[in-house]
Every structure is written in structure tokens, then in C-alpha cells.
Known about the structure:
With 264 residues, this protein is an alpha/beta fold.
Amino acid sequence: MYYVEFLADTHRRLSPRAYLEIGVASGKTLALAHCPALGVDPSFSITAELRGDVALFRTSSDEYFSRPDPLSPTAGLPFDLTFIDGLHLFEYALRDFVNAERHSSAGGMVIFDDVFPRNVDEAARERHTTAWTGDVFHVLQVLAEYRPDLFVVPVNTSPTGLLAVFGLDPASTVLADHYGAIIDRFRSPDPQTVPAGVLDRSTLVRPARFLSSGVLETLGPLSSATPSSVREAVRPVVEKQLGVGFGGTDQATASAQAVQSPTS
């Protein structure tokens, strides 16, 4: 399944009250929103037909989230769905997640694009290929180790996979508190050592399976719930429909093992 098709069905099933997109480009995924939507990109060039209440900001995500009230375009509504498709460098993607989670509802979801490069060249920090993921794949191990409270589900969309993250805690400061140490540890010069489990997609969930699991329909009504109640509600759905390996300590162990098996 092409990633845009997956995102379109996610919008329909989750019915977010407010949507954030980091990295707008032509607007083809921003156009999927049917709710107040915010797009942030320093160099967007919109060719898609945008509908409804859409606010566009031609700036970096770091600059945007340094503003006094990042939720002003949504009249204060936190984001129920975020799509991160900005600069394909690990440290930027991680900062985008930190900022997005802080301004999300506990029942919301953050989706990373381009987490699963198909070869080492696509994973380079210095782009030299037409298709390019950069080193965003590092978020897998970081979330597994530092945020085992989250549900983290890798989805096998084409061309380069998505990572769905939910069970959010807008009050968490763990990643921000350890950001410097995380970057020092995971950022490395090219060529990147890409784990075999990333390249062969052995742990990814089929898109249709995720969409039919009931996770999105469970999250939808929980926009105003607390993080603990969201996790309590969604955990049995995840474990029954997707398996126990995508949340809590089981997820952390499985993800860490997958990304600690580098390819030769």
C-alpha cells in the first residue's frame, strides 16, 4: 500500500480534530485533512488542492515551535494526528516528535515518514540518491530505549515505510532532557550502519492489518483522556490485533534487538 493511501484511511478512521504536518512540499498529504490543519515547511510549493481550514507557515519547524502559541491556528485544539516528513536527518525528526507530542492530545498519533531505507545509500545523511530517507531510522531504537511507555508500530507502506506512535504523553520531558546525549550517541558519519531488521522490514506490520485493527477507532474518542487511560484502553486492542511487541517493555526489547543487528 502506498503511504498516501494509508494516510488517507488513517484520517477517515481517526477523525482528528486538528492536524499537523511538518514537511508539506506539494501539499498532497496536507490535502487529506478534513479538520483544522497546520502545515510547516520553509520551502513548500503547493500544487494540490487544499480544502477547509488550513494554515501554512513558510518556516522551519524549530522556528515555528519557538513561537508563544503554536496552537493558535487551531484555536487551541491540540493535534490528534501529526505527520513528520521534514528534513530527513535524525536529530531534526526527533525534535519534531518532541514538539509535536508536547502539543498533541493524549489520544493522538504521530506518524514518521521514511523510517525504512531500502539500502544503505538511501540512509545517508548526505543525500546522493533520488529517493532518500536519511538516518531517521535511529528513532526506532531511541523510542524503544527512552520511551517504552509509547506504542510504536512500524508499518510496511511503500516506498520507505512509516512509523505510527501513540499512547502519547504531552507532559513528558524524557526525550528533551536527554536530547544532547541521544544525538551524541546515535548521530554518525556516512556510510550509515543500517540494522538488518530495518533493511529487511522483518518486524513491520502490513498496512491493511493496522488499519483494520481497531486502534484508530479506539483512539478517536479519547482526545480529551489522560495518557494512562488512553494506554489502558488501547493496549488490549494492540495486543489482540497486532501482538504484544508494540508497546511497553516487550516493544522496547523487540525493537532494541531488531536495531542492534547491523547489516554487513
